[in-house]
Amino acid sequence: MNAPARAVPAAAPTISIRNYAIVTAAYWAFTLTDGALRMLVLLHFNQRGYTPVQLAFLFLLYEFFGIVTNLVGGWAASRTGLRFTLVLGLALQVVALGFLAMLNAGWSIAASVAYVMGCQALSGIAKDLTKMSAKSAVKVLVPKGDESGLFKWVAVLTGSKNALKGAGFFVGGFLLSLLGFRGSLAAMATGVFVVLVFVLGFLPAAVGQAKKKAAFSRVLSNSSGINRLSLARLALFAARDVWFVVSVPIFLAGVLGWSFTQVGGFMALWVIAYGGVQSASPVLLARVTHGKAPGPVLASALGLALAAVTALIPIGLRFHAPPAPTMLAGLVLFGIVFALNSSVHSYLVLAYSEADRVSLSVGFYYMANACGRLLGTLLSGVLYQFAGVSASLWGAVVLATAAGIGAMFLPPVTAVVSWAGAKGDD
Questions:
Q1: Does residue 238 fall inside a structural domain?
Q2: Tens digit of pLDDT for each residue in 202-259?
Q3: For residue 173, is it within any domain?
Q4: What's the rounded Cα separation, in Å, for the pair 283 and 375?
Q5: Which residues contact 73 (CB under 8 A, 6 or more apart)?
Q6: What pLDDT score does 361 carry?
Q7: Is-contact 246 253, C-beta < 8 A?
Q8: CB 243 within 8 A of CB 379
Q9: Would you say the C-alpha torsion 175, 377, 359, 403 has a positive or negative sign?
Q10: CA–CA separation, 121 and 114 (whole Å)
Q11: Given its phi and psi angles, is residue 157 left (phi above 0), alpha (psi -120 to 50 degrees) or beta?
Q12: What's the chain's average pLDDT?
């Protein structure tokens, strides 16, 4: 009698390395130019004498259209596939950079602000289409059920992305000094176009297409977890951008007298270090979580801790501590706590998401992210112009407190998965 054949365990499905590499390369290239563009616009127009409020307005449509794009982009991606939205994002960035290079220095401030706002609107759409597509593609490319693999690949994507975003700030300041405003924009547009051609040629068109076409009504999340997390996320990113977008860079340039390269270099180092903390967040929080996935309690505690850390900066300035060391040391502490909080949020959005509507959930979540950036950007210019950098920092304290309180109302995470390698995103 023949012995019964032993069942051979099925090999675990693996991620498509080729497709993942294409998505990641596109995301990296875009992120580098996006960071450079922000610093380029801020420093160039500050040099031309624009007020903090006018500088804030340059970025308002960028953030507003990020809201719209995140709300609609996830629905569009679920119907057309993620390659389409990724390619569209890259193409719009090329167009935005090209139009911005055609800005006429002889125009009035009002005309220039309106024109730059329009170009930034295109760039805002491009940024969030690219970001949503790349983030969602990781969930799609990782085999279902491979939660540890999911977080490993999310870690590679977002951690290196933060380093490149930081490098982009330095590149923006450096290119402005080296090539001038138009030359910098032309160089960046060329780089993004090359990546666009590569994606069109090598990434399959069907990546991320849902089996069932989602109705447009589904762009609004019906998940209490996603909805409540999105409100906390809005407050968290408003707490960052209320000082990050206008107040601190202009304080460093205008009050402390730093050069373009110094301002861009500091902002670059801050973002790179912030990304490094995100990469290490599972290790840093391991003793708190005991190796388990984070939950709402940790998200709330980190939000309140962020408020407390931020308050140290304006208190120090009020009591005449040296401004440069006080500001820099305080922002380092802010970056550490903010990165940990952001990493917990980025785990929770995946934990609350259903697999078949991940692009919709992520799109809705990043729509709230963009709302926070819009609010923070506007407040950054207004508070700095009328009350100085301390007012912007106290605004950050209030908003971080709101993020911590909002996280108290999140539902429990029912999935028991490892979050090793999970990190936050911008």
A1: yes
A2: 776 655 555 555 554 555 555 667 788 888 999 999 999 998 888 888 888 888 888 8
A3: yes
A4: 32
A5: 85, 128, 129, 132, 133, 359, 363
A6: 63
A7: no
A8: no
A9: positive
A10: 11
A11: alpha
A12: 79
Number of domains in the chain: 1
C-alpha 425/C-alpha 348 separation (Å) is 12
| Residues sharing a CB contact under 8 Å with residue 41, sequence separation 6 or more, in sequence order | 58, 59, 100, 116, 120
Beta carbons of 225 and 350 less than 8 angstroms apart = no
**What are 36-71's pLDDT values in tens digits?**
998 888 888 888 888 888 888 888 888 888 777 766
38: nearest Cα among 131, 134, 167: 167
Helix (H, G, I), strand (E, B) or coil at 102: coil
Residue 410: which H helix or E strand, with range?
none
Name the amino acid, one letter, at 189. A
Provide the CATH number for the domain around residue 336: 1.20.1250.20
Q: Which of 191, 198, 166 is nearest to 86 (CA)?
A: 198
Q: Which domain holds residue 72?
A: 17-208+219-407
Does the pTM surpass 0.90? The reply is no
The single-letter code of the amino acid at 259 is S
Structure tokens at 58: 């340059």
**Cα of 143 vs its chain's centroid, Å:** 25
Token pair, residue 236, equals 């968290």
- What's the CA dihedral at 76, 77, 78, 81 to 10 degrees? 130
* Residues 161 and 275: beta-carbon distance below 8 Å: yes
Nearest to 164 by CA among 153, 154, 172: 172
